[in-house]
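Retry 2 of 3 after timeout on previous attempt. Resubmitting structure tokens to design endpoint.
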């Protein structure tokens, strides 16, 4: 429906985790918010913005130190933090905006921009699939990079949805430092394309 939509989420994690030989205390938090305005312009033209924060650890910790890295628990592929799945809701500062249109009830297109940075520069960078990329203990930069996404959607049949997209990631100084530390230095740009079919059982 046309109009203004918003969502806000906050989470706090506490307890003890056995990530080392001895259990460590955990105290971590995260917040996220998004807003969207669907206008009365042709094709249901929609404008949106979002932001997110998730705490992280300030580099390697002693065995009995309190952990502050927020654990998103489950992967969030394509859904919330960029279609390229390069970063998770953990040790994260994110801001973004998008423009979307629906030429028909069964088709849609979306152009989005995200800026991703690290809450703790010496903490761990994790992908949306919860795979650790690595960390750089001497890193002082926060910027992971800038991501641009273009996504097309078509629903040719009620149980079937087809998505196709392209993403471009401009690698920031923090990402370069972590990749260098891991011996995986590469290009300043990353390209990614996907075609995905989703079938929902009635």
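Retry 2 succeeded. Sequence:
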């Amino acid at each position: 429906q046309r109009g203004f939509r918003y969502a806000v989420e906050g989470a706090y994690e506490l307890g003890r985790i056995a990530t080392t030989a001895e259990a460590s205390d955990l105290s971590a938090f995260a917040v996220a918010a998004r807003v969207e305005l669907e206008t009365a312009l042709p094709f249901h033209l929609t404008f949106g913005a979002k932001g997110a924060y998730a705490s992280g650890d300030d580099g390697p910790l002693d065995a009995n130190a309190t952990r502050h890295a927020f654990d998103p628990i489950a992967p969030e592929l394509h859904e919330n933090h960029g279609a390229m799945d390069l970063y998770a809701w953990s040790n994260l500062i994110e801001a973004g905006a998008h423009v979307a249109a629906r030429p028909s009830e069964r088709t849609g297109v979306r152009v989005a921009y995200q800026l991703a940075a690290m809450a703790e520069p010496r903490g761990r960078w994790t992908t949306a699939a919860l795979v650790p990329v690595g960390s750089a203990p001497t890193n002082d930069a926060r910027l992971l990079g800038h991501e641009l996404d273009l996504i097309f959607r078509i629903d040719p049949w009620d149980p079937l949805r087809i998505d196709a997209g392209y993403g471009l990631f401009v690698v920031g100084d923090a990402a370069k430092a972590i990749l260098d530390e891991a011996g995986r230095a590469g290009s300043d740009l990353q390209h990614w394309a996907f075609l995905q079919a989703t079938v929902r059982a009635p």
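Attempt log closed. The chain has a mean pLDDT of 92.
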